Amino acid sequence: MPRTEPIKAVRGMRDLMPAERALWRTVERAAARVARSFGYQEMVTPILEHTDLIERVGTETDAVAKELYRFEDRGGRNLALRPEATAGIVRAYFEGHLNQGPQPARLFLIGPMFRYDRPQKGRYRQFFQFDIEAIGADSPAVDAEIIELAATWLREVGLRDVALELNTIGDHKCRPAYLDLLREYYRPLKDKLHGDCQRRLETSPLRLLDCKVPQCQPFKPKAPRITDHLCDECAAAWVLVRRVLDAAGIEYRLNPYLVRGLDYYTRTVFEFYPGGASGQQDALVAGGRYDGLAEAEGWRSTPGVGFAGGLDRVTEVVAASGAEVIPEPPAEVVVLADPGLEVEAAEVARLCRAARTVAVDYEPKSLRAKMRSANKLGARWVVLLGESEAQHHVAQLKDMASGAQVEVPWKQLAESLA
Ligand code: HAM
C-alpha cells in the first residue's frame, strides 16, 4: 500500500488544544457572567443560514461580497456559513416571537463565524465571537449600555490598556443628503483614489472614510463630516450616548472616519482596540446600531444595537499581556490499579468522582511508569489499588506533593479527598 500523506486541518481553521482552552474558558465565562449581569440572556442560532438572509446585511460588505462561504445543499438550497451573528439573531428574534415580549430583547451568543479571508495572526477563516444584541431598543442609552458591557468584559479579562473609538453615521433621514455631499467632494478626486475607492464612490461612499490605502489618505481631512450634518434626532441621540458614557467614566476617542465594514449600521458605531493599535484588523470588539436591518430582512422595522468581540483576538492579547491563567489539571486524582483490576479501578474512580476529577490509568505499564505519567498530568493524588486492597475494599491514597500515603476504605475515599 502506498503511504498517504496525513490529512491536515483546513487552511485558516485552528484546533484549540486543551492547554489553550483554559484561557478561552476564562474569557468566555467572563463574557457570559458580564452579559448576564447586564440582563442579557444566552441564545444559539444555526451556523448555516440562507445566503439570501446574509446578503441582506449588505452586498457591499466584504464579509458578504468577498468572504462568504456559500454552497448548495443536497436539496438545492443556497446556504452560507454565517460570517457574523447579528443577521441570524434578528431573524430568530422574530421567528421565535421575542418581538412580542418585553422590549428590548437583550441577547448574547458565543460561537464560531466563518469568513474566507486571507489568514494571518488575529484573522482566521473560522473564528469565534461573543455577540451582544439589544433588539427593540430605541433609547441611545442602550448604545452606551452595551459599550459599558464590552468595556467591563475587557477589564474583567485583565485588559486595562484598550482604546475605544466612537462615531455616529446618521440615519435614513440625514445620511442620504450627507452621502451626496461626500460624493460631490470625492468625484473630482476620483482618479487619485485607489481602485476599490473609485468603485465605492458611487455605491457606498462612507467606506472611503475608513480606507487605509496611503494614496487615499490626503483627501480625508477636508471631506465633509457627518457630525456636521445630523438630523435633530440623530444629534440628540449622539449627545445622550456620550452623556451616559461620560457619567460612567468610560473614555473614548471621537473618530469621524470610523464607519464600520458592514452596511447595516445607523447612528452609533464603535470599536475597541488593544492599546497602541488602530485600524479595523486589530479591533477586539466592534459594533453599533442597526435600525434598518430588521426591515432589510423583511420584518417589521425594529431598532437594534449590538457588538461582537473577537475571542481569538481577545485571548491572544490577554495571553500576550502575560495574564496568568492557572491551567486546570486534566484530573486531580489518578487511579492506578494492578492488571486484572479494571472493574474495581472503575468503581473506585466512580466513588472518588463525588469529590474530585478522576482519571484511571488502564495502560499495561509498570507502576513506576504510571506514577510518572500521573505526575506529568499534574494529579494531586493517586489512588493505588492492588489485589489484596481490592479484596478488602480499601485503597492507598497518596498525596503527590507530600508523598504521604494512607490506607482508606473505598467508601471513605470521597470524604478523604474533599
Ligand atoms: P465585525 O467588525 O465584522 O462586526 O466583527 C467583530 C469582531 O469580530 C472584530 O472586531 C474581530 O475582533 C472579530 N473578527 C472579525 N473577523 C475576524 C476574523 N477573520 N478572525 C478573527 N476575528 C475576527 C460584526 O461581526 C458585527 N456583527 C458586530 C455587531 C453585532 N454589530 C451589531 N451587532
CATH fold-level name of the largest domain: BirA Bifunctional Protein, domain 2
Total number of distinct structural domains: 2
Ions, cofactors, ligands: which are bound?
Answer: histidyl-adenosine monophosphate
Which architecture name of the largest domain does CATH use?
2-Layer Sandwich
Please outline the major beta sheet: 8 strands, mixed
Order of helices and strands: HEEHHEEHEEHEHHHEEEHEHEHEHEHEEH
Principal-axis shape? elongated
Distance between the termini: 54 Å
Broad structural category: alpha+beta
Indicate the CATH class of the largest domain.
Alpha Beta
User: Uncertain runs with pLDDT below 50, 5 residues or more?
Assistant: none
Percent in helix: 25-40%
CATH superfamily of the largest domain: Bira Bifunctional Protein, Domain 2
Total helix count? 14
Strand line-up of the largest beta sheet: 1-5-6-11-10-9-7-8
Features:
418 residues, Rossmann fold, 2 domains, five-stranded mixed beta sheet, elongated, binds histidyl-adenosine monophosphate
Structure description:
The protein has helices at 18-37, 51-55, 62-65, 86-95, 140-156, 175-186, 195-203, 232-247, 293-296, 311-320, 342-352, 367-377, 387-392, 413-417; strands at residues 41-42, 48-50, 70-72, 78-81, 105-114, 126-135, 162-168, 253-254, 266-274, 285-289, 304-310, 333-337, 358-361, 381-385, 394-399, 405-409. The chain is built from 14 helices and 16 strands. The chain has 418 residues and is an alpha+beta fold. The strands form three sheets. Strands 1-5-6-11-10-9-7-8 form an eight-stranded mixed beta sheet, with helices on both faces. The protein starts with 17 loop residues before the first helix and ends with a helix. The mean pLDDT is 93. It has two domains: 18-174 and 230-321, Bira Bifunctional Protein, Domain 2 (BirA Bifunctional Protein, domain 2, 2-Layer Sandwich); 333-417, Anticodon-binding domain (Rossmann fold, 3-Layer(aba) Sandwich), CATH 3.40.50. Helices cover 33% and strands 21% of the residues. The structure holds histidyl-adenosine monophosphate. Histidyl-adenosine monophosphate (HAM) binds at residues 63, 84-86, 115, 117, 122-124, 127, 129, 131, 133, 261-262, 283-288, 290, 306-308, 310, 312-313.
